[in-house]
Amino acid sequence: MPLSRVAMGLLGLFFTASALLLMFLTFLGGARNSNPLNQIYFLQVDTSRIPGAPALSRWTYWNLCAVNDHGKSECGTNYPAYPFDPPSHRTFGTTEGIPKDFIGTNHYFLTSRFSFPFFIIALFFAVTSLFTGFLAMCTRVGSYLSSALAWLALLFETITTCLITAVYVQGRNKFNANDQRARLGVKAFAFMWTAMACLLLSCVLYCMGGAVGQKDSGYSGREHRRRGFFSSQRSPSVEANKEVNP
Predict the structure, then answer these.
(1) Domain total for the chain?
(2) Stretch 115-119: mean pLDDT, rounded?
(3) Which parts of the chain span the membrane according to its record (predicted)?
(4) pLDDT per position as a tens digit, 102-111
(5) How many alpha carbons lie under 13 Å from residue 104 in its C-beta half-sphere?
């Protein structure tokens, strides 16, 4: 059933492309002060009690952003793998107004920083799976190769999502416990978790496309052998009839 393999490959491509779109939106959130990137962030905190900090601050993968009167981020210079480490010199450079749980620990710095390279790796495998997905519509090998690459992308995306979710949920709780209103960025986390679901679906669909091709190939082979067997059994009688009735 070639059409089934094409359909599975096409659906796998669709979900892979959807996952990539969501991953790139999350990854580039805060990189530019333009819509929709200035609405994507991981955590928003009331930092009015911190000297030199804006009234509201937002953390992204690239920087710490202030919030304007329209509720949009206003970000400055970009720094790759910008860490979630409020008291450090990279962020506020003070311990005044900072919850004590952030002071004297590298937990938040390391967890947020390590998620960045995992995200890069997830993007690499997802992009590769997208390109090999075109082969998935034609060949069984392409289906399994695309599935393997999508599984790798899913693995690293899962690691990234879990790290980011854990560190910023913990940070939100610490700020709220210190009477500093904090909330998670709904768009960023919705994009990350939805991207995981899309990658999982693409993995399954690519595998199904490969399995359908294998089943059809095996069936065709058995039919060929069966026909060959019967034809070899009939051929002597046919030749005999030709000799009796020339």
Answers:
(1) 1
(2) 96
(3) 6-28, 116-136, 148-169, 190-212
(4) 999 999 999 9
(5) 3
